[in-house]
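[job 4471] stage=fold_predict status=RUNNING
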Amino acid sequence: MRRALLVAALLSAASPLAAATVASPDGKIVVTVETDGEGIPVYEVALAGKPLIARSQIAFTFADEDPLRRNLAIESETRASADSRWEQPWGERRWVTDKHNELAVTFAEAAGLGGAAPRRFTVRFRVFDNGLGFRSEFPHRAGKPETHIAEELTEFTIAPRGAAWWIQAGDWNRYEQLYQHTPIDAVSMAHTPMTIRTADGTHLSFHEAALVDYSAMWLQRLTGQRFRAHLSPGTGGAAKVVRKGAFVTPWRAIRIAPDAAGLVENDLELNLNEPNKLGDVGWFKPAKYIGIWWGMISGKWSWAQGPQHGATTARTKEYIDFAAKHGFRGVLVEGWNHGWDGQWFGNGRDYSFTRPYPDWDLQELAAYAKKKRVHLIGHHETGGNIEVYERQLAEAMKLYGDLGIDVVKTGYVADAGGIISCNADIADPCAGQAMAWHDGQRQVQHHLRVVEEAAKNKVAVNPHEPVKDTGLRRTYPNWVAREGARGQEYNAWAPFNNPPDHEPTLVYTRMLSGPMDYTPGVLSVTGGNGVPMASTVAKQLGLYLAIYSPIQMAADFIESLAAHPRELEFVKAVPADWAESKLVAGEVGDYAIFARKDRNSADWYVGGINDATAREVTVTFDFLDPGKSYRATIWKDGEGATYETEARHRIAYDSRTVRKGDTLTLWLAPGGGAAVRLQPGK
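[job 4471] inference complete, writing structure tokens
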């Protein structure tokens, strides 16, 4: 009690307590910022006059100094606003609108406690009509060259009751988990994005933007619906984040929407990132690819050398020929390089990223692909050993650039906490080997280093087992996709197959962070050892519209793709780059139907995916240009189709002429989907 009275007296002597508010441009979202009776910085968010985020603190603890939590007062504030539009070089939509109001509040400690110079930090809020972001900004401090953050104590207290879709953070399997659907007050420790639907239908997503040189934020539920940031662990020691001089934290981002469509059609995290730092990236071409991959995933071929080795020169030429014949730009080849023999999982000590196996001729195949107007897609699996990879990184990326291999898939296959790391530039230098988390500060630094080195050589990067996407593709547009969730590969591994509601949940959770290399297009709907997948054939087509990526794989064996010529025609035609994207029907975890317009033609595509419940969905073509007729070519679930039996193979075809305002009713099978191509008439 005496400490509280002392703090209050010091605060009142320094300056009166004051509150600052900032509203969204439409006035519906209002953020209030102040300090409480103990001098703790707090914020609240109201939506249409009702509490949405109740009073929540913003604070920090450190490894080598007192917490920055109490004994603070608002010293100053500044305001700004923006109303602009910027162009994506590739993406779900070509143009992004950035319209927000900004409030920056500087907090200062009251002088006199402990005899130390008062510390200051600024919290900057940007409030949009569809959400908000805020970050903390720390100035340079004389005599204190480094800041050692032990934990960020930022909180999010959700006011209305509701349900959450989330995956466990701190789990051995990184982000590759099935989503849980629980009451908000049943969440434990969650990765972001975490999606919420309140009792009145308001949709929220909690995430972060511009995660640079900092540890990723997990969300730890404390009591009730009160959550606190929990930073991913570092490489040891008390500090999870070490920064030199002045620095900013990532943005803490909250999407706010009245419905599922408003949650999905939302560019909040992109707008909170810095503009493109790379300049013209026209050398990256959004496209589709095939690959020597499904054979290994399904157990038919091996990454390692031996009689079942997948990456042979002869097989790669077959895949290049198929790609050239059917218009696929890329051919991914995994298992081409030394290091796969023996124990590579979580080890990676033997990997060479420039030396191919004897039965795979890198130079010859690069020349052969170029002759066929096809591009090899490189693969750098590290086994989680970033120390080995970083020593070879510059040479490996230069090799790819010289050979015209302009996309590389990287991999970090190791259990969470099993990244092999060493970095003398941070406060936890290791005398040999140190272990790090996949989304700790060290790995965040590593991924950006890879992206920047790749950009020097005009190479795009698609990491698997990554740090989650936080919109950095705007700043570094060669960061074209990531995995970061349970992908299609799990459909080859019974009994771990993805259930039918997995992909319709990804749309409203993982996909809110950015493009995902889900690897659709297994038209056989069959995994390893002939195990059936929880998908119809039509759903495999609908995935191209529901799960966005500027590099989309047709993941099946080329023999299986060729055995489905009518489905292959859709896969060949569907773009990987869009001018517009709209969620025209859907609910979180149930189903998702999109309408997307090709960036390079006047064609529209409509389709998506369903969970285990059969349903009819009516799409209204109100997005089409008036006065034009369109030829609709339709791929849909056949009568009686279901993922549960051999009827998963049933697919039906239709065509008709449609105009703006017409409707189309689609029957979606259990585990089903649909795809429609709309071509304007002459």
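[job 4471] summary: Residues 2-271 form a domain with the Beta-galactosidase; Chain A, domain 5 fold (CATH 2.70.98.10).
[job 4471] exit 0
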